[in-house]
Amino acid sequence: MIFIEDKQMVIPGDILADDEYHSGRGTFKEDSKICSSLVGLVAVRDKKISVIPLQSKYIPKRGDVVIGEITDIRFSMWNLDINSPYSGILPASDVFGKEKRELNKTFNVGDVLFLRVVDVDEVKKVKLGLKGRGLGKFRNGILIYITPTKVPRLIGKKGSMINMIKDETKCEVVVGQNGVVWVKGDPSMERVAEKVINMIEEQAHTSGLTDRVRNMLYELLGKEKPDIEQKEETDEEEENGEDLIQ
Amino acid sequence: MITIIINKNLNKGSQSNERDDGRAFDELRPFKIEAGVLERADGSAYLEIGGNKVMVAVYGPRELHVRRLMQPNRAVLRCRYNMAPFSVDDRKRPGPDRRSVEISKITSEALMPAVFLEKFPRSTIDVFIEILEAEGGTRCAGITAASVALADAGIPMRDLVVSCAAGKANGEVILDLSEAEDKDGEADVPVAIMPRTGEITLLQSDGHLTSEEFEKSLNLAIEGCKKLSEAQKEAIIKRYGD
User: Fold this and answer.
1) Do B236 and A123 touch (CB under 8 A)?
2) Which end of chain A has the least Cβ crowding within 10 Å, N or C?
3) pTM of the model
4) Element housing A51 (H / E)
5) Residue B62 is nearest to which of A15, A85, A205, comparing CB atoms?
6) Nearest CA to B37 among B58, B23, B22?
């Protein structure tokens, strides 16, 4: 027995189904009933029920790429704020190797870095690393904070949404899985991108978003709207957002 | 032409004894709940019930800097109940007092069983309850609003905690005591429940009641909680405009 429909909005404590279904993310089992633990939209895949939250905090996971800001310099590492309940550390050895150098000459407090989560241990100590393509320090640009669960929506199917923003605003855009977005370009274009990204975050749970984003972009840039609406977007929340690097 | 005047204040309960404000013995004061009212908080809620006005802000889960409070296996839930100096008729001296410290503690204990604290080890969830106007039953209003704000913040929970008081005034067992009924009445029983399972997370009792009267007030309060619980759900759903 299932008591809800796919994509229906639920709140904590709502009974979703009984135990012929499997309990996925955002749900829990109690008395052989599957209940929602979050405010969000239901996703039913085969026999697995999950709830995609509308609001959440980033919980670090090994392999994620994130954007962090340096908050502290210690003897042999940097402390970073990664927009999460747990702060991250970047060991100096990861940057310098065996060499001994002064940390504050490389990165200082307030610098924004693009990093990979190397390891998260059982006490939630988050080790970060800079090894990988495209990782490193950002110069200039602005940061925009969105809810981490809405990152896949911002990227869109195979990066369609994010590429549209990049093409139209001529900005560089980098999205971290922790919900931090870095935008660099012409200051007025940065502002356009910020507006659009905030709009996507607000309306992430609605369908037909790509078209509205396109219209908003054209409006903000003072361009003509395209005559024919392009093929209808099949709205989806997940499965995308794996290829995050640029 | 015939005009039919419907008096909404007419007795809706099954008994005839009317209260000072015209309510039936099992009638709540008019109430309103709104979610997501504060821009900078992770979650927030505003609740009005009768003359009470309560604003709740939730922050977290976030990093806990007070090392001695840190729990290695779960998050801590910190609550601060605070009455604004202008919330009562005579100016209240600002700052925590004996009463607000107690209410902060029982609020956090009433909410804790509902929250999946074990999902966020070594972190904290902070709940700030501000009483802007008080007219009896603020602790219940605070708990009800706080659980809406927690849900709004996207914190995983087993259920929405909802709270309501019952008691005895003028020799009658009644629901949702107003300030006057609380002051002149014989007893006050605040109750908080998780409506899906019916588990009680808060039960206090102040005053004199026989065991029958106590049981009657408890059942009455649970009924009141269930009515409020519907409004909580509506408030959250309305936040996302569906």
Assistant:
1) no
2) N
3) 0.88
4) strand A48-53
5) A85
6) B58
